[in-house]
Structures are given as structure tokens and as C-alpha cells.
Design goal:
Chain lengths: 160, 160
Amino acid sequence: MKYFEDIQVGETWDIGRHTFTADEIKAFAQRFDPQPFHLDEAAAARSHFGALVASGWHTALAWMRLMIDYRHRQDEGLRSRGEPVAGVGPALGFRELKWPKPVYVNDTIHYASEVTEKRASASRTGFGLMSFRSTGVNQNGELVLSLVSTTFLERRPTRA
Amino acid sequence: MKYFEDIQVGETWDIGRHTFTADEIKAFAQRFDPQPFHLDEAAAARSHFGALVASGWHTALAWMRLMIDYRHRQDEGLRSRGEPVAGVGPALGFRELKWPKPVYVNDTIHYASEVTEKRASASRTGFGLMSFRSTGVNQNGELVLSLVSTTFLERRPTRA
């Protein structure tokens, strides 16, 4: 990532897309969230959802993986231009993790983020804290995931 | 689960324990959160953490899995006593997902939950909304995970 000083509040990042297959939905749920509406088409048809849906955690973890891949691409771009790469993470946690609509089989979710706040870190010298709101939107333009995260980001070193 | 009417604000649930091995920490991170301090001991030793640590999402997903297993045990107990089983879920989302301390290799995390609020659901007839705070505490008594979730829980059917 860029240094803390080079990040602007309001800047947006196009994180990427993920399509949720039935096999992947069931395999994730089997391990982490074995509720009937994530595991079995017939049980899901009888549920509130009416059809098989991805675990909300699955929707969030697909975002997390794409976010790390996005950062790696950003870092490669910086290195290829001979620019320094700032250290990032760990995250402090998340606020307002919401799943306003379900993710159904073969939905493609488009993830994006927007920087909402920057502030000094009292605990960690050389790092600032950056907050950003991330969203996942399906192929019909419906919001399926929203979360606000706060993470450490390295400051530009001061000259000696 | 018990019906919405039978859940008391303040009641606590002992969800269970999970021990995080190095292999499991790395396998989870490889798939969902490939940051150096979750993947490689040498890189982790040079990081803020000083040693390999579990992804915060891994700490949360271990909770989710144990919570579903806990509900299944509760349901089996109700059925074995000939009592009705209330439908539960889905969750609306989470508030204040926090990782105040890292989870290191071979840490055993004890998960528990406390019901913090009950309220009517405006959107779903026959269900109420229940909020509960869940925590993960390591073998040294340190809090490593805290989250507040809100989920649907079936109301006791009214007599005709």
C-alpha cells in the first residue's frame, strides 16, 4: 500500500469480483456454518430464503481474500515503479458488519471500498489508523455486504 | 433453541473450546487471509506480533462453528425431553467485532455468549430478534474476540 500520508479520505478501491457456486457455498458451510439453508437445496427451499444461500461469513471472507490480493497488486505496482511500499495491518476489528440481502447460487458479487477516516495511532509509533467502508453488490445492483474496518498503515519515514 | 419467550436477557451459554494449531492457522490464512504473520513463522517473528498468529476471521469462524454445534446440542436435548424446538436464524449481522489480543499457536480459546437484548421483529411474523455478546478468552484469561450479533428466533405459537 501507499504510505498513510498518501491515502486520501474519500478515495475508492475496486477490490474485485467473486461468483458463489453451489459446491463452494456448501463446502464453506459444512466446515464453518452448518445451517440447513447453507447446506441443502431442499431445506433451503423451505426456509425464509427460498433457495440455497451463502453463509454471510463466506460473503465476508471472499471480500477479505480479494482485499489481500488487491493490496498485493498495489504493492507490485509500487515496486515496479521504484516506489516504497508501506506496511499495513493488522486490523483492529470491524464495525457494522451487515448482510442486507442474501447471496444465492451463482450470484457474482462486486466488492469495493472507500476510505472514510484517517487518524493518528496512540499505541504504535510510525503507523496511522485508516478506516474504510467495504461493500459487496450483486449483479442486480443490490447491496449484500457492508462493513467498516480499521487497520494500521505505515507512515512515511521522517528524514533524519 | 428454546422459543423467543423462554430466552432470558442475561442468560449465558458455554459454547465450547478450540485449540489453534500452526497447520490449521496457516491453512485457513492461505485460503482466506494470506498475510505474512498468519502464514510464515519467520515473517511473523519480524512482525508486530513477534510470532505466528491466527487470522482474526479464523478466531471468529471457530466461534461460529461451535455456536452452531451448541445449538444442535440444545435442540437434541429439547427433542429428547419431548419439547418443541424453535427455529433460529438467519443473523442480521454483527456489531463491534473486535480482536483485542492475538491468538498464538496452540492457544486454546474458550467461547461463551450472553443474551443482551430481546425485541420484536417488524419484518418477520412469528419471530423475535435476540442480541447476544460473544467472547473468546485464551488460557491466560485474556479476551481475544468480542462480537455482538442479532438473530431471528421463533416465537412460541399462539393457541388457536
